[in-house]
Amino acid sequence: MSRKPELRGRAARLARLFPGPGTRGQAARTPFVLLVVLLLGGGLIGLLVLNSALSEGSFKLDDLQKDTKNLTDEEQALQRDIDSYSAPEALQRRARELGMIPGGDPAFLSPDGTVKGVPSTAAGAGYAGAPFVLRSPEAVVFTTVPGTSPAEIPVSETTPTTPTIGR
C-alpha cells in the first residue's frame, strides 16, 4: 500500500507544478534565483545612481540659491548708491563743487522760431553758495569727436552771444 493514489483534475495539475523527490526541480530553481538576485542588485544599483544624481542636483541648487542671494544683495546695495547719488541734495552739492550755479528762468523756442517766455540770466558770481572758479586754458579739457584731431576743429575769434537758429 505504499502506492500513491492517482490524482485527477485540479489536483493533478498542481502535482505537476510541484515535482516530487528525485526530479530535476533543483536545477530549474537555480536560474530563477540567479535572475531574481540580478534584478534586485540592478534595482539597488539604479536607486543608488538616482540618489547620487538627485544629491548632486540638490548641491547645485543650493549653490545657485546662494549666488542668487549674493547677487540680489549686491543689486540692492548698488540701487541704494544710485538713489543716494541721484537725490536732489546730492546733485545740488556736486553741482556746486563743480562751480555750477542755478540757472534763471528759461525761455522756450517753438518750432516756428518764436520765443516763448522771458529769459533771465543766472545768478552768476553773486550767488552766495557758489565759489567762483577761474581756470587757466591749460586746465580746461576739451572733448573731440572720435576720428578728428583738435587741430581740425575751427576756432573763431568771437563767440556768438545770442543763440542762432538753423546753423
Describe the structure in your own words.
This protein has 167 residues and is mainly α. Helix content is 47%, strand content 2%. The protein has 3 helices and 2 strands; from the N terminus they run H-H-H-E-E. It has a two-stranded antiparallel ribbon. Strand 1 and strand 2 form a beta hairpin. It is rod-shaped, with a radius of gyration of 47 Å.
How would you sum up this structure in a few lines?
The chain is an all-alpha fold and 167 residues long. It is built from three helices and two strands. Helices cover 47% and strands 2% of the residues.
Attribute tags:
167 residues; mainly alpha; 3 helices; 2 strands; 47% helix
Number of strands: 2
Radius of gyration: 47 Å
Structural class: mainly alpha
Question: What composes the largest sheet?
Answer: 2 strands, antiparallel
Report the order of strands and helices.
Answer: HHHEE
Question: Can you lay out the helices and strands and say which pair or pack?
Answer:
Elements: H1 10-17, H2 25-85, H3 88-97, E1 108-109, E2 115-116
Antiparallel strand pairs: 1-2
